[in-house]
Amino acid sequence: MVQREWLEKDFYKDLGVSSDASQEEIKKAYRKLAPILHPDANPGDKQAEERFKAASEAYNLLKDPAKRKEYDEARRMFRGGYRPGGFDPRGGYQSAGDADAGFSFGDIFGGGGAGGGGAGGFGDLFEGLFNRQGHQPGAARRPQRGRHLETDTRLTFRDAVLGTTVPLRITSPAACTTCHGSGARPGTAPRTCPRCNGAGVISSNQGAFGFSEPCEDCRGTGSIIDSPCADCSGTGVRTRSRTITVRIPPGVSDGQKIRIAGKGEAGMRGAAAGDLYVTVHVDPHPVLDRSGQDLTVTVPVSFSELALGTTLSVPTLDGRIGVKVPAGTGDGRIFRVRGRGVPRKAGEPGDLLVTVAVKVPASLSADAAEALEKYAAAERAGGFDPRAGWAGA
Prior knowledge:
By secondary structure, the chain is α+β, with helices and mostly antiparallel strands. The protein folds into three domains: 1-133, Orthogonal Bundle (Helix Hairpins), CATH 1.10.287.110; 146-284, Chaperone, DNAj Protein, Chain A (Ribbon), CATH 2.10.230; 289-368, HSP40/DNAj peptide-binding domain. Helices cover 25% and strands 26% of the residues. The protein is built from ten helices and 17 strands. Strands 12-13-17-16 form a four-stranded mixed β-sheet. The chain has a three-stranded mixed β-sheet with strand order 3-11-10. Strands 1-2 form a two-stranded antiparallel sheet. A hairpin with a 2-residue loop joins β6 (201-206) and β7 (209-214). The longest helix has 17 residues, at 46-62. The termini are far apart. The model is unreliable at 80-141 (pLDDT under 50).
């Protein structure tokens, strides 16, 4: 997104807060909107998806106090009536005596990106427009980094807990394999632009302000390619399909995003590539569940097993284990098996929590019913009352 679009957006409105909202209010507003507008909660709803993107973009800028300050300053200056010589925030700058001498904000500022996927930012806006720091001769213009990419992958419950490696097929702009991203024909190399001495911009003074605009000869890149690569037409980038092997760390959760640095869209003419963000979707397990770093499982048992005691065979992610249940165990008791939960990056893994739950038979055979009646009689004779002391009894 170019900086002109930054100024035309109302990030406060996108989050539903006032321009004097505190950082905490901004954070709360985003946390309230994000789960409501998230694409997972609104499958197929393009309007909700666009609102989610707008809210995320707004939060990413406003949560940074320095960027927020520059954004506020720019809005006050460009929307508050500062118009030397007929300045138009939506159409460009025109000198007082020549209505046809205007030039576009896109030409002044270049093609920056709001999400980290391109050159630019509010620091560049003020340095370029008002020459705050000035461009020294020979100073290189910031490379246009490639955009970030997003994709999804689906994992089994076991792979999500223990970690795995997955191949991902990506179709996107990537570094040209012929020129290796330089944009120049093999055997040649780009040369420094003689007009701007590699700065990528031409500076001039108009009144009290210093203005900078992209060099027309090199189009703001600071270099000229005399013999462009035939395969990528000098851009250093070609759209192609590639397979990326991604290591999924142990313990990822459903919906979690993993950042793979430098695996996004390739930058122009050898500039740094963007990042790849992989959203993980986890399939449920037939019997196991997860609570933070612990795994949980509920094992059905009979009354006799709890009363007499037993050893249960309990499934885990790497085989079955035996869990001893002592005689007289109550229904719903939880047994903790140390170290059988979710691995941690540092420290001990979580635990396996085994809950025992009595399962009552829907019907009894004649022999079972007779035996149970005898047991009930013996139970009463022994003085056992399951409701003794309960509800005032």
